[in-house]
Design goal:
This protein has 14 helices and 18 strands. By secondary structure, it is of the alpha/beta class. Helix 3 packs across helix 4 and helix 10 runs parallel beside helix 12. It is globular.
Length: 474
């Protein structure tokens, strides 16, 4: 049984998590989704449960449980081949049967043992890392954003893996389809209390109950506010009036006011929403024409005989498995890759906004300085724009390096949209965004009329934006 008792975590003297009281046993085979806004401490909590980080206070007990942790950044330091990495997990060489069992559990053939790790796709690395964890026969798995490097087939495989795992799993994921399909309990890090609220059921049930609790809190808060203002108004009008000045009524009202203020709850915090300004007018007519006869990468032809056009307001979804050339095609369109046989022709005055999968920002600069350098927008407007993305006056003077993955993605989005592009290129735009920001971002995308080229494996996102056409890469 994994049990935490009033566990709290501080980061740079700031309380990140407070009074965490959770319990989980492997025999229940629970599948738990740990959710919360970006930067609230989800990954930190997993590291505490894995005993990588000590809590600031409180207790952690893991009697009769064996915990394994898959981090966001998967690394295999010191190993070249898959087989070398997995054999390093054996206590004795004669136990090599465990390698075969683990490989079978993650759906990898024996031939992968001789493959170089650096040549594996992101999804294959996830499977190899999971195989390494299974060698220790864990009873509870902690998975931190395991879907980020998986294509649609990889996510479907992961869903089956989580469902069939003979133990309990805590997964940090913003994949709402996955949470709906296989999760039976949601743990939310509550922004009001910094503790965990447990919700039974999947994502839809979680949202329903979360909204009910929030509405109840708001009603209670508003009732308290009205009561306080009512008494304050009464005292202001009568406290020093000769009729009431020395009466017990004034003392009674003052006592009632003091009690109300003492027990008054803080205003409930709803989902933090980014306030994205609409982009300019859509481009009219033909926006982009792409004709690629051939594109080779490391002596392998990744794109062949591809042709498509984008007209005003069209949303184009690029589909294909990992390694099929989707990101390569985006780089060709943006002009970063010119080594191909074919042509890319733009309409008049096309201004591209390209949100990449991986950050190219200067981590050493402050958030404010990097925003101003990249956009040319200066104070006070720069601070105002950043505030609309939930970067307040205190956070904008901090280094870019301190941002979580999701905060970094949101910051890059702020930079790109501030330039007011009229053609958006979005490569896995919802990766690392928390579920609340994803929903806000989806609403923004749906409301815009500018043409877009989108690569995404987020099934919930794809269904909501409803692309006008699909371009498939084999």
């Amino acid at each position: 049984m994994l049990i935490t008792n009033n566990l709290s975590i501080k980061f740079n003297s700031k309380e990140l998590l407070k009074d965490i009281n959770i319990s989980l046993d492997s025999s229940s085979r629970k599948k738990v989704a740990l959710v919360g806004k970006n930067g609230c401490g989800k990954s930190t909590l997993l590291k505490v449960l894995n005993r990588e980080i000590d809590p600031s206070s409180g207790n952690l007990d893991m009697a009769n449980e064996n915990i394994a942790y898959l981090p966001q950044d998967i690394d295999f330091p010191g190993y070249d081949l898959v087989g070398e990495f997995l054999e390093s997990k054996l206590d004795e060489l004669w136990m090599d049967y465990k390698v075969d069992m683990a490989m079978g559990d993650v759906g990898l053939d024996e031939e992968y043992l001789l493959k170089n790790i650096k040549n594996l796709s992101g999804g294959e690395k996830v499977k190899v890392a999971l195989a390494g964890l299974l060698m220790d026969e864990p009873t509870i798995l902690l998975l931190d954003e395991p879907t980020n490097n998986l294509d649609s087939k990889g996510v479907e495989w992961l869903e089956k893996f989580i469902f069939n795992f003979n133990g309990s799993i805590i997964v940090v994921s913003h994949d709402r389809y996955l949470i709906n399909k296989i999760i039976n309990e949601v743990w939310e890090i509550d922004p009001n209390t910094l503790s965990i609220i447990v919700y039974g059921g999947n994502y839809d049930k979680f949202l329903e109950e979360k909204n009910r609790i929030y509405e109840k809190r708001i009603l209670e808060y508003n009732h308290e506010e009205r009561e306080i203002k009512k008494i304050e108004k009464w005292l202001k009008a009568r406290e020093f009036h000769p009729k009431y000045r020395f009466s017990s009524i004034v003392a009674s009202q003052k006592g009632k006011l003091a009690k109300l203020k003492a027990k008054k709850t803080d205003k409930p915090i709803g989902s933090t929403k980014i306030k994205i300004n609409n982009l300019g007018k859509e481009k009219r007519g033909l926006v982009l024409s792409v004709k690629i006869k051939s594109k080779n990468f490391s002596e392998k032809e990744v794109i062949k005989d591809l042709a498509f056009k984008i007209h005003k307001g069209e949303r184009v979804l690029l589909k294909g498995a990992n390694g099929s050339g989707k990101t390569t095609l985006l780089k060709i369109i943006f002009g970063e890759d010119t080594d191909f046989d074919g042509e890319v022709v733009f309409g008049e005055d096309v201004k591209i906004g390209y949100l990449k999968q991986f950050s190219s920002l200067n981590a050493k600069k402050s958030i404010l300085d990097e925003f101003e350098d990249k956009t040319g927008i200066i104070e006070p407007k720069s601070r105002s724009i950043l505030a609309s993305y939930s970067f307040d006056s205190e956070s904008v003077i901090r280094k870019v390096s301190i941002l979580s993955y999701g905060q970094l993605k949101k910051f890059e989005l702020a930079i790109i949209l501030a330039r007011e592009p009229n053609l958006l290129i979005l490569d896995e735009p919802t990766n690392h965004l928390d579920i609340y920001t994803r929903e806000e971002f989806e609403g923004f995308i749906i409301s815009q009329k500018v043409p877009m080229i989108i690569v995404s494996h987020d099934r919930y996102f794809i269904e909501k934006i409803r692309a006008d056409k699909e371009v498939k890469l084999d």
